[in-house]
Amino acid sequence: MQNMKKILLVLLTIVLIATLLTGCGNGKKEGEALVVGMELAYPPFETKDNQGNPTGISVDFANALGAYLGKPVRIENIAWDGLIPALQTGQVDVVISSMTIKDERREKIDFSKPYAKALLAILANKDSDLNSAEDLNQPGKKVAVKLNSTGHLYAQENLTNAEQIVLADESACVTEVIQGKADAFIYDQLTIYRNNQQNPDTTKAIYIPFQSVEYWGVGIKKGNSELTTKVNEFIDEFYAGGGFDRLTEKYLAQEKKVFTELNFQWFFSDVNE
Fold first, then answer.
1. Which of 21, 84, 87, 130 has the fewest CB atoms lying closer than 10 Å?
2. Domains in the chain: ranges and CATH
3. CA 128 to CA 267: how far, in whole Å?
4. Which strands form 184-188's sheet, in the order they lie side by side?
5. Quick check: 236 pLDDT over 60?
6. Pairing of strands 184-188, 142-146
7. pLDDT given at position 135
8. Alpha-carbon distance 99 to 105, whole Å?
9. Please, are residues 232 and 113 in contact by the beta-carbon 8 Å criterion?
10. Contact criterion met (CB below 8 Å) for 9 and 3
11. What pairing do the DSSP bridges indicate for beta strands 219-220 and 110-111?
């Protein structure tokens, strides 16, 4: 009888372990957190509040997506160059980090339909003789770019005569310009506008005409068509419900006014027309 009890105990233990392993092997369950990768270094889209918590337009957007999917949201703060690998390896479910939809990136991940758009501009040292992007494309000129950003790609394609100073984050690029170590920094118009406003004595903003509009999308692991469809449906509903209008009013009311005065295209205007 004692041996029978031991055998039954062993069998029950095996069944319990097998059940637990099967549960782990089924992947994410309904109701589990939607894990969102973003680099919290690009205010007001992706940044931290005074307590170090994620905040910004992309955070609100991600939380709204989670609510639409019926999932709580967990933000993973990941360096820009690690976002796509994190998506590929399943560390995160989606990337929402002001990421431009580019063919080079499409080879590695899928994207949702566009939810925003942005154009590039130049932050130049105020003492430089730069007045256009063409002025920067000269031997002896130095342009700071954030690694693997759209500005980096633009410089590789259009500023082949200039020396590129490739850095890991935006603030380092701005510092190079302020200190005169770089002639200019290329990034999106909002960032350039804001940094020029913060450093009017040392910088000037130069806007690049006749450029193609760059679109931002939600990054999704390649082949996950079910999630891509749901994200696209959410984006349509979020636009139709005035979601991006509310985010603009909350985070970018003054910038929207300036962009309108300068006749610049706004982030959330006519994206999916």
1. 21
2. 34-117+213-262 (3.40.190.10), 120-207 (3.40.190.10)
3. 29
4. 163-167, 142-146, 184-188, 120-125, 203-207
5. yes
6. parallel
7. 93
8. 10
9. yes
10. no
11. antiparallel
Q: Which amino acid is at 4?
A: M
Q: What is the mean pLDDT of residues 93-114?
A: 96
Query: Which position has the higher pLDDT, 30 or 251?
Result: 251
Global pTM exceeds 0.90: no
The tens digit of pLDDT for each residue in 138-166 reads 999 999 999 989 899 999 999 999 999 99
Single-letter code of the amino acid located at 255:
E
Question: Strand locations in the chain, DSSP E?
Answer: 34-38, 47-48, 54-55, 73-77, 94-95, 110-111, 116-118, 120-125, 142-146, 163-167, 184-188, 203-207, 214-216, 219-220
Six-digit token pair at 127?
Answer: 């003492």
CB 61 within 8 A of CB 6: no
* Partner residues linked to 200 by β-bridges: none
**Whose CA is closest to 267, among 239, 227, 236, 234?**
239
Which tokens hold the place of 137? 């494309």
CA dihedral 119, 124, 126, 131 (to 10 degrees): -70
| Dihedral sign (CA 182, 146, 39, 247) | positive
